[in-house]
């Protein structure tokens, strides 16, 4: 009798514990993070996650969403396409997340999206700027893929107009990463717009990711005597390119995209080299609007440093998800997908956005000028 009673009590205890765990999990909405926390572009993923975690902390402190707390399930994709897909599979099939936030780069996002589409779970990137992230080569919308950042075609076109109108250039040289969809997409839109404005591409040279020596390509560019040098790439190479360009006596403006935004850029290029450098971005910490100032204060209190654009994009992404969850009415991936697609007039730190028919945002863009290695706010342009 005693042995049976003991086994019965153990059984009841186990069932109670399992029920308690089930209740605890039912009070939470699981959201997956598929980010580059190590590897080639780790500062992007780390920055985005910092912004997301701050926003989720605020959201949960204010009562959560739909009466539940958001639980983040964070994974490192190591800045690798294959690992990104593996992470997405784990988050959806094992962790049972209602949505995936990330990845940071376009290449990694495109590696994860087939997994999201197959399993019918929304994936939202705040920084994958390639035009074909949310639309396939046939022009079909990827049903469960969304982003809250502008497209490279918009970014490249804005830079071409800036080079022509603001910098008064007539001759541009291009140095691109021919292993990067991001770099090639920016070049395509830049060339189309710049030449349509009467500009001439006088040189086009290429490098590969992880290259360290760019002097041969830069020497050829110098010989072409450009008015402006367009380098659409990521900070790891751009920092070295700017440094070596200045050492070779190339003192024309250097322009590029949001891949420049990293605190490591100044470390790689040297602060003296980072003058007369301009790039398009999603946000500037020098913006004096009320929302940006309040975000900066909250971020600095949490992390003891000023936020960059990736921090702001991550922060907006979490609130963007909260907004869609509220409108969906429940933490259901299909209903969430429909709510994301119908977003209109969402107001974030990086600007107000509405999602278009291709699951891309219609939003403003910021142009940053580097002065002695420091970012300064130059201007904001509406789409």
Describe the structure.
It is built from twelve helices and 15 strands. The protein has 383 residues and is α/β, with parallel strands linked by helices. The chain folds into two domains: 28-150 and 290-363, Response regulator (Rossmann fold), CATH 3.40.50.2300; 152-281, Response regulator (Rossmann fold, 3-Layer(aba) Sandwich). α4 (106-119) links the parallel β3 and β4. Mean pLDDT is 93; it is low at 5-24.
The span between the termini is 78 Å
Looking at CATH, the homologous superfamily of the largest domain is Response regulator
Arithmetic mean pLDDT: 93
Residue stretches low in confidence (pLDDT < 50, at least 5 long) are 5-24
Q: Please indicate the percent range of residues in DSSP E strands (runs of 2 or more).
A: 15-25%
Q: What overall form do the CA principal axes indicate?
A: globular
Task: Give the helices and strands as they follow along the chain.
Answer: HEHEHEHEEHEHEHEHEHEHHHEEEEE
Q: Architecture of the largest domain, according to CATH? A: 3-Layer(aba) Sandwich
Under CATH, the topology of the largest domain can be stated as Rossmann fold
Tally of individual helices:
12
The beta-strand count equals 15
Major sheet: 7 strands, mixed
Helix/strand-derived category reads: alpha/beta
**What strand line-up does the widest sheet have?**
7-6-8-9-10-14-15
Determine Rg (CA atoms, Å).
23 Å
Which CATH class of the largest domain? Alpha Beta
Number of domains: 2
């Amino acid at each position: 009798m005693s042995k049976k009673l003991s086994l019965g009590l153990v059984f009841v205890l186990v069932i109670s514990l399992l029920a308690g765990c089930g209740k605890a999990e039912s009070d939470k909405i699981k959201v997956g993070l598929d980010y580059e926390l190590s590897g080639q572009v780790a500062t992007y993923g780390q920055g985005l996650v910092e912004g997301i975690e701050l926003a989720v902390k605020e959201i949960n402190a204010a009562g959560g969403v739909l009466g539940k707390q958001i639980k983040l399930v964070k994974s490192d994709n190591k800045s690798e396409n294959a690992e990104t897909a593996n992470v997405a599979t784990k988050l959806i099939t094992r962790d049972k997340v209602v949505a995936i936030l990330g990845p940071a780069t376009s290449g990694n996002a495109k590696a994860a999206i087939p997994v999201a589409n197959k399993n019918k779970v929304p994936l939202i990137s705040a920084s994958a700027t390639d035009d074909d992230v949310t639309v396939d080569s046939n022009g079909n919308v990827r049903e469960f893929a969304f982003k809250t950042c502008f497209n490279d075609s918009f970014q490249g076109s804005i830079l071409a107009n800036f080079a022509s109108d603001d910098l008064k250039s007539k001759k541009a040289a291009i140095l691109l990463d021919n292993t990067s969809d991001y770099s090639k997409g920016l070049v395509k839109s830049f060339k189309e717009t710049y030449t349509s404005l009467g500009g001439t591409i006088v040189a086009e040279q290429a490098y590969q990711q992880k290259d360290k020596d760019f002097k041969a390509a830069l020497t050829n560019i110098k010989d072409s005597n450009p008015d402006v040098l367009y380098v659409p790439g990521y900070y790891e190479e751009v920092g070295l390119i700017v440094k070596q360009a200045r050492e070779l006596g190339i003192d024309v403006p250097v322009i590029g995209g949001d891949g420049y935004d990293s605190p490591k850029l100044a470390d790689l290029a040297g602060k003296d080299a980072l003058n007369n450098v301009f790039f398009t971005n999603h946000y500037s910490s020098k913006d004096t609007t009320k929302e940006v100032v309040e975000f900066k204060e909250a971020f600095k209190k949490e992390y003891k440093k000023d936020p960059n654009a990736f921090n702001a994009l991550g922060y907006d992404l979490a609130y963007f998800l909260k907004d869609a969850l509220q409108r969906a009415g429940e933490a259901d991936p299909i209903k969430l997908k429909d709510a994301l697609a119908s977003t209109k007039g969402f107001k974030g730190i990086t600007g107000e956005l509405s999602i278009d028919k291709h699951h891309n945002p219609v939003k403003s863009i910021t142009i940053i000028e580097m002065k002695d290695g420091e970012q300064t706010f130059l201007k904001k342009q509406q789409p």
